[in-house]
Amino acid sequence: MTFNLQSHRKSLLAGILIPLMLSACGGPKMIAIHGESTVGLNRDAQGKPLSVVVHIYQLRSADAFNRMTMDALLAGKTEQDLLGNTLISSKELTMIPGKSVTDSETIGEETRYVGVVGFFRRPDPGYWRLLFDADAIKSRGLVFKAADCFLQPVTAKNIAIPGQSSQPPAECASKLR
């Protein structure tokens, strides 16, 4: 009887510990996505705020995302054409001036980077997109702000994209003309 009891305890312990250890591995993780927008979001020539579509990409590599241009996106090329086999998945959110949006997404095992693109009327040349390390997003979630003509990270620090200044612009008023 003692042998069977010890065997049962070992089985029970293994049944509890193995799933716990596996869940600690780098598997898929559900994260919160939160976007905040300013009241002056994406203003038109008359200063009227307009909504912005934001795409969130899960990526295997950052190379194609770093080379992507707004002109190529607006020329009608698909995300798959632009990002190729680095694209794992894409999610679309619509930001309304002065409002916030909250969603969730599962970050896959093979996701190394998360890219965020804002389709602004007159985008800032450096901050129409943001790039994040997926591990940082897994631990903190994805929180960003959409302002007049640019995106800004809130919780996780973004990875610098070639040609991007160290800080987003203070304002976009000069872009209205």
Q: Would you kindly provide a brief summary of this structure?
A:
By secondary structure, the chain is an alpha+beta fold. The chain has helices at residues 2-23, 63-67, 70-74, 79-83, 134-140, and strands spanning 29-37, 52-59, 87-95, 100-107, 113-119, 129-133, 142-146, 151-153. The strands form 2 sheets. It has a 4-stranded mixed β-sheet.
Write the layout of secondary structure elements.
Layout: H1 2-23, E1 29-37, E2 52-59, H2 63-67, H3 70-74, H4 79-83, E3 87-95, E4 100-107, E5 113-119, E6 129-133, H5 134-140, E7 142-146, E8 151-153
Parallel strand pairs: 1-7
Antiparallel strand pairs: 1-4, 2-3, 2-5, 5-6, 7-8
Description:
This protein has 177 residues and is an alpha+beta fold. 25% of the residues lie in helices and 31% in strands. The protein has 5 helices and 8 strands. A 4-stranded mixed β-sheet has the order 4-1-7-8. A hairpin with a 4-residue loop joins β7 and β8 (151-153). The longest helix is centred in the N-terminal third of the chain and has 22 residues, at 2-23. The protein is globular and about 45 Å long. Keywords: Lipoprotein.
> How many beta-strand elements?
8
Main sheet attributes: strand count, strand direction, barrel closure: 4 strands, mixed
Total individual domains: 1
Query: What percentage of residues falls in helices of 4 or more residues?
Result: 10-25%
Average pLDDT confidence is 85
| Rg for CA atoms | 21 Å
Give the overall shape, derived from the CA principal axes. Answer: globular
Q: Which oligomeric state applies?
A: single chain
Strand order of the largest sheet: 4-1-7-8
Q: Any idea what the CATH superfamily is called?
A: Type VI secretion system, lipoprotein SciN
**Structural class determined from secondary elements:** alpha+beta
InterPro entries: T6SS_SciN (IPR017734), Type_VI_SciN-like_sf (IPR038706)
Pfam families: T6SS-SciN
Keywords: Lipoprotein
Protein name: Type VI secretion system lipoprotein TssJ
